Each structure stands twice: as C-alpha cells, then as structure tokens.
Amino acid sequence: MITSNPPFSQDSYGPEAVIMKGVNGVNWQLAEYEKRGGYQALRKILSDEYSPGDVIAEVKKSALRGRGGAGFPTGLKWSFMPKGDGQKYIVCNSDEGEPGTFKDRDLLRYNPHIVIEGMAIAAYAIGASVGYNYIHGEIWEVYERFEEALEEARSAGYLGDKLLGSDFSFDLFAHHGFGAYICGEETALLESIEGKKGQPRFKPPFPASYGLYGCPTTINNTETFAAVPSLILGGGDAYLALGKPNNGGTKIFSVSGDVQNPGNYEVRLGTPFSKLLEMAGGVREGNRLKAVIPGGSSMPVLPANIMMSTDMDYDSIAEAGSMLGSGAVIIMDETRCMVRCLLRLSYFYHEESCGQCTPCREGTGWLYRLVKRIHSGLGEEGDIDKLLSLSDNIGGRTICALGDAAALPVKSFIEHFRPEFEYLVTHKESQIESK
Amino acid sequence: MSQTRMLSAEAYDAIDKEVAKYPPNRKQSAVMAALAIAQNELGWLSESAVEDVASYLEMRAIAVWEVATFYGMYNLKKPGRYKLSICTNLPCALQGANKTVDQLKALLGIDFNETDLDGLLTLKEAECMGACGDAPVVIINDREMRGKIGVEDVEKLLEELKAR
Ligand SMILES: Cc1cc2nc3c(=O)[nH]c(=O)nc-3n(C[C@H](O)[C@H](O)[C@H](O)COP(=O)(O)O)c2cc1C
Ligand code: SF4
Ligand code: FES
Fold this sequence. Notes:
The complex is a heterodimer.
Chain A lengths: L29 H6 L4 H8 L4 H11 L11 H6 L9 E6 L8 H8 L1 H15 L3 E6 L4 H16 L15 E6 L9 H8 L23 E5 H13 L1 H7 L7 E8 L5 E6 L2 E2 H7 L9 E5 L8 E2 H5 L2 E2 L1 H7 L7 E6 L4 H15 L5 H18 L7 H12 L7 H26 L8
Parallel strand pairs in A: 1-2, 1-4, 2-3, 5-11
Antiparallel strand pairs in A: 5-6, 7-10, 8-9, 8-11
Chain B lengths: L8 H11 L11 H12 L4 H10 L4 H10 L11 E6 L2 H5 L2 H12 L12 E6 L11 E3 L3 E3 L7 H10 L1
Parallel strand pairs in B: 1-2
Antiparallel strand pairs in B: 1-3, 3-4
The structure holds flavin mononucleotide (FMN), iron/sulfur cluster and FE2/S2 (inorganic) cluster (FES).
C-alpha cells in the first residue's frame, strides 16, 4: 500500500507501472534515478540529434494526453508554440488541488528527477530556455525535496548552460503556491508566478502566444511531463500500445474515499474500473459500491452499475457520461448520503471562486445555499429544479472552467440520485442517514 | 522614509534566493515566497511586515496586500503558537476527517478559526491538500504535514505540540 511509510515495496504502484516503476519511497535521488535508466532519454535526444520537430512528432504519435484535467493532446499543444528565437517558457502545473488528486505529490517526492527530465525534453522541443514548476502551497516538504533534486540535476549538468555538451541550455526553478485552488487553472497560475492574485485570464490569447511575462508558454501537468522520458526512450508507438488508440500510455489513478487501501495505482489506460477497484482492496468493510467520481471532484458522478462496466481511459469515461480529469477516483459506498456529499463539494467551489465573473461568484454561493437548505430539511418544492437551472446558467458563461466545475457535480448528482434529493425535500430527513 | 527592517538576515538571504529565480526586472514574482518567509519567522503578517516586504521588493504596498489577502495560507491575524489546518473536503470526509475535527474541537474547546485559552493552537478548516490517500490530514504551521490522524491520535498530537 502506497500510503504506508517508505520504503514500501517496489511494485506498490502496481505491476504495470512505468513512471513509478521501481520507486520505493526512498530511492528518489539522482544516482538511483540514473540506475533506473534516468536521463537516458534526454541524452538520446541531445546526442542522436533529434530536432525539436522530431520530439514533437514522437509525442504526437504516442497519443499522450494531458494528465491535469482536460486531457488535451500533448504533442498538439507543443506544436502551437511559435518557432524562432524569442524568449519562451515551459511551466509545470504541480498545484495539485483538485479534491481527490494526490499523484503529483508522490511524483515530486518519490521520483522528482523524472519530472525534471521530462521538462528538459519538453523545453528542448518548444525552444524554452527557462522553466518553472509551480508546487502546491500545502506540501512544503515536497517543495524542499524538489529544490534538492534541482540542485542535484544542476551539479550533474542536466540543467544549466549547454546541457551534456550540446548547444541547448535550460534552467528550471520551483515556485511555491500558498493556498488557492484556482491557481491550478493555467492562466491563474501564470498570474501567480508573476506575483499577483491568481485570477484567470480571459482567453484567447492562449498561453502559447501570450503566457508568462507575456511570452509564449507551454503549461503541462506534472504527470504529463513524467510520461515523456519513457515515451522518448521506447518511442511513440510503443507508448501508444501501452494504452489504446487516442489514449496512449499508463495513468496514475489516485483512489480515495470508501476503499480498503486508498492510494496511487498506475495502470494502462483502458484498464477496467473493476480491476482498479480491486487493486485498491475493494470497497471498505465489504460494503456495496454506490457511486464514483472518476476524475476529480469537478467531474460528473456516476452510479456503481455504470462504473463497473466502464474502462479507465479518456474516451470510455466520456462515453459513460463523465470525464477522466486528473485521474482522481473518489469512491462512495452504500452508507453515503449523496446530498451531503454534494453539499461539501458545493461549499468548496463557493469558497474557491476567485470572484471575477458574476455567474460564478454569485452562482456558486446560490448553489451552496440551496444544497444546504435541502440537506438541512428546509428544502421547498421546486428547489431541485432551481438547482438545475442555476447550474445551466453558470456553465459556459464564465472566464474559466471553475464555473463548469461547480455546475457539473450538481447536475450529475441530481441526474443519478434525484430520489434522494426528493426524499429530503418531502421528508425533511436523509433517506440514507435516517435509516 | 526608509522602512524598518523586520526580519532576520537569514530571512532576507532566503528572499534574495527567491528573487534570483526570476528575470532581473521581475522581483515581484518573489512576493509570495517573501510573504511566506516573513510569516514563518513572525508567525503572521502584520501591517509593518507587509510594508517591509513591499519596500524590500520595491513594490507598492497595495500590490503586496492584494497577494496577502488572496491566498488562503497567509495569516492576517496572529494565530496561537500553532496553526493547525485540517482538510475536510469530500475524500477526507469519507475517510473520517470530521471525526478528527470533532475530537480536536472537543479537546481544545474551540471551533474553527478560534484559538484555545492557552494560546496553544488555532484551528483552521482547509481544502484539499493533495494528500487524500493519507486522510485525515493536518498541517502544522504551514510546513509540516501529518497524515492518518484518526480520532485516537488527536490527544497524542496535542500533547506533542504542547511539549515542544
Ligand atoms: C479550476 C481549475 C483548476 C485546475 N487545477 C489543476 C491542477 O491542480 N493541476 C493541473 O495540472 N491542472 C489543473 N487544471 C487544468 C489546467 O488549467 C491545465 O489545463 C493543465 O495544467 C494543462 O496540463 P495538461 O495538458 O498536461 O493536462 C485546472 C483547471 C481549472 C479550471
Ligand atoms: S469562473 Fe469563477 S474562478 Fe473562474 S475566473 Fe470566473 S469567477 Fe474566477
Ligand atoms: S480531500 Fe483532503 S487532502 Fe484531498
């Protein structure tokens, strides 16, 4: 079990692990990473004289999709960057704050060099000479470790001037957040690095044309970068073959909630949900599965029967009616009141709205107060429909996706568990908790 | 005109190291780190601490205030000897965080955002810390994370903090 104290067994992340293969919680330092084949991919592109275009072509072939939430094709994103010599930046999004997600923390503390190597390769591909890794404010000790890893990489010549004797120079720095979920949104994150409030920018322009300090910038999630070294070493086709078409590679799923062994499990994309659940020890105390949020709290919830016949990849989860998101799998068992679960999530989005757009700032408050009213037994006839129409009026009408993130859970909880909401409105108590 | 310096020499050295991460004309990028360093040394961000950071980074005080008030981990009021933040978001709640919260509140006799009578501890409700696998999770004074703090571990934790 991964949440046990290190050293844990080397296959704790599962037998199919690629990114976390051989990681045991204590072997994070440079020498050990090199022993696992670390920095060979960077050497390969620099010594075999891959052009930046060759690297991007390989990433496109692999069907690697962003691991931060939206699942955008990584090779395509990199190809949006302008060619030429001007200042460009590469930025890593380690502001892991999507409820249920805890994989980037493990990556940074147990395998930091794979992120550094992935970022260096990406920087080479897009022509960036400087990078930043934005690390979640709550994980200070992990930030310190990442700083240590950066020092190691600099001393060994993997960062700095003319890497490994090539013409390519790249340096990388860590930026520490301080408690704002919204900074996970990529343009809010850029504002935050610039030393401002983390309020999302209106898009377009997109970061590839106007990013950090106004320069072209590519932003990817920590795990996206971590997937790059093995993808380059084995080639795009082999990486693709680990998963399935349009869904290349492996993915680290953070499984939390009502499971026996909460933790991170790395499996091939396309693995049945039932197998992932089994890896996490199944539902706790032998209880029955009720509902699953398959991609972090911003994604729609799905009932057990749909999940049990779904595979864990971007396209399958989308077909089932939700999104793979960040890969945070939140498990709820038969003892859970869905209204109470939604209440906590609605509170979260209300708290974390940055306040720029009226539909989000006001709407998240209304959603929260309405769910609270229903939950506390004061709900009125029509409240449920009011929730739905409110959600419709927030979604798609805001600067960033936090508005949708607040609306989607509401709609899906009601869609799949409406009788529980109705019971509370009629009987003034929870159908589940009053049993 | 000149601002009274409020931090130790080490703290300014640490801030200088942060400033060096960014382009020469982008000192402002270090403001989050500078405020965190100040908070770590002083326990909170008083008006003079914020003004000190502003003058050190050659920023307008209002621009520093905007940052200090936006990010949730900055202490704009002086907390007890310890600030204990606990995550109560859904995954942690499913894994027993609220029972830990109840025990903390009962033993300390306080609610969220309050400080106990001995001034030992201020209790804060927090959002996802990206550590849900280790739920229930607490953070002591911004920097020290502890996982798997069940009801039965609360008393020991408080004893430990008292004894420090
Ligand atoms: C409110 C909000 C929060 C987000 N939080 C994160 C986060 O914590 N980590 C992350 O990688 N992406 C997060 N994202 C997605 C990023 O905006 C961005 O799409 C992602 O970092 C791109 O990287 P990828 O293509 O590698 O996934 C968030 C988006 C929104 C709207
Ligand atoms: S949608 Fe919400 S969080 Fe996003 S920019 Fe608008 S107000 Fe801010
Ligand atoms: S929900 Fe508590 S740490 Fe993620």
